[in-house]
Specification:
Elements: E1 2-6, E2 9-11, E3 17-24, E4 32-38, E5 45-51, E6 56-59, E7 67-72, E8 77-82, E9 91-98, E10 113-114, E11 118-122
Parallel strand pairs: 2-11
Antiparallel strand pairs: 1-3, 3-8, 4-5, 4-9, 5-6, 7-8, 9-10, 9-11
């Protein structure tokens, strides 16, 4: 199983960025895919999750209304569109897969597979 996150970069406050997570080795529709982030000196935290059975989405309060998760099962890809970015969104972002459906944002311990992270920096 492999998850490959991409799309990170440097963006100004108020700007937008889109992340992609390409998944291989599993059938996406049977898994939940979640995005996590980890800022320096902080614990890894859940950002958003999509339960691929019905496409149910969930978000952390800190990103609700600004971030949107979506998926394309045919392309085995999950996306995270991030708008109205703030400096506190700066972190390494990871995507992860769990072999069950989560209709809330899971914890890192709930996930079975992880990809390498992609850096998102929000700064002027």
């Amino acid at each position: 199983v492999q998850l490959q996150a991409s799309g990170g970069g440097l963006v100004q406050p108020g700007g937008s960025l889109g992340l992609s997570c390409v998944v291989s080795g599993i059938t996406l529709e049977y898994y939940s895919i979640a995005w996590f982030r980890q800022a320096p000196g902080k614990e890894r935290e859940g950002v958003s999750c999509i339960a691929n059975s019905v496409g149910s989405e969930s978000y952390a309060d800190s990103v609700k209304g600004r971030f949107t998760i979506s998926r394309n099962n045919a392309k085995n890809t999950v996306y995270l569109q991030m708008n109205s970015l703030k400096p506190e969104d700066t972190a390494v972002y990871y995507c992860a897969a769990a072999a069950q459906y989560y209709y809330w944002v899971p914890t890192p311990q709930d996930m079975n597979y992880w990809g390498e992270g992609t850096q998102v920096t929000v700064s002027s």
